[in-house]
Design a protein that fits this description.
This protein is of the alpha/beta class. It is built from 24 helices and eleven strands.
Length: 520
Amino acid sequence: MSTFYLKYRPQIIDELDLEKVRTQLKQALSAKSIPHAFLFSGSRGLGKTSAARIVAKTLNCELPLTKRSDSIEPCNQCQSCLTITKDSSIDVIEIDGASNRGIDDIRALRETVNLAPIQLKTKVYIIDEVHMLTKEAFNALLKTLEEPPSHVYFILATTEPHKIPETIISRSFHIQFNRANKAEIIRSLQRVVQGEGLEVEDKIYDVIITKTRGGFRDSVKLLEQLAFASKKITLDQFIKLFGQNDIETLVQFLVDNNGAKALDWVFHQEELGVDWTDIFRNILNFLRDKLINIIKNNTMDDIELNKDNLIKMINLFIQASVMQKTTLIETLPIELVIAQWVGDLESNINPKVISNKLKPEPKTVLLNQTEVKSSLETDTKVIQHSIQKQEKSETDKSNGKQIEKMGKIQTLPITINDLKDKWDTLLTAIRPQNRSMESMLRNSALSKVDGDILSITVYYGLHKQQLESDKYLRIFESTFQNIFGQKPRLLYILGDRQEKMEVDAIKDKELEKNVKEIFQ
């Protein structure tokens, strides 16, 4: 059975979904002097090859123009049209420019050009990825394009038109296949939906367009994957198959300054195994559309964000997308965006000791409003420093009191040094249960073992908050017990990021030294 893309491949000009391409092809093929060389340029999956075959059928259709319902369109019923559709005509020659790129290949082509067609009225050469030809091959092809035989037509297709010599472009009727807009993609998908009798939620079109970035072939393939499960296609079905793609939800969490929910969104994506490059691309496309809308219409639709803050958010995600290409922790760049956007949440998160037996109440730091107001009027910077110093003091006290309340019920059967030696084993066992948790722990540091209390230093407030949740605690405790035979009581401590940077720098130097020693 044919795939949807092949089954519903356009067979006439009017079925091509790019309006600009339809218009230009009709103009060229209805002219008194039809160009003997066409150049189709554009990204993959936009219909260049389909359009090339339609042109071949139009040039060779046996039904007289006066008897066609449309004087340009091929009839798709005569023998010539049918053989081209089935890709069985010996007079329509498709050449892969990447494989036949040398001058000898083009010389062989020139030798056959002058031979009369065997089955059809004209001979059509379709050269795909023509930009791959060598300079010498282009020169040889140019000689043929300058004086082509009357029965020969060339259709050159490329994804990189800038690599084609200007002399070739100037002798061709150039049609650019631009990325499809929303209406054009929906037009393409609805042809498949109607043909297959599918029932599709309206939101499905939006998520498909976002994921495929305006490519017809990829959009239809995505629809086909969804249709394998059911004739009724819903957003829930899409999420189960491809993961959460509701970028607007994440942006709304950020707009609401809800760092916890934004982080939960990230962890959910990680558990689904999403492609983070794809996620960043979709986020930036979403925000770009909002920016264009606010510039054109002075409105942000349902997202309450002014232009300056929108630009700030875009810049944060651009920086994170660059970082994502090199980071060892896939989720860290987007987590940093959340932390930077919602502000420094550390002051709102009190250190807690969490275990199945003990969860002491957090201690909240309260500031006298009159004092704050008075101080702000005199020196804002001074009071901010004072607040940070006070919170640090309260944090230290809180940690100490919590440890005192815990008591030393029993001693863990392992020292901190032993645990450091087996830390990787522990994290490797955690990974299949929760990849995000493993990543966060790898980005933390073991502090000490005191009785049955295991202290771990983390460097991001959002990481600390998540690791202290019941779900993550149960995973750590059960995994630890499986390896060491006893559950620990955990104390997560918020550490100094500068200190972590210094430690990481030392590790990098040691790694560089070891690599040099290996290859010396």
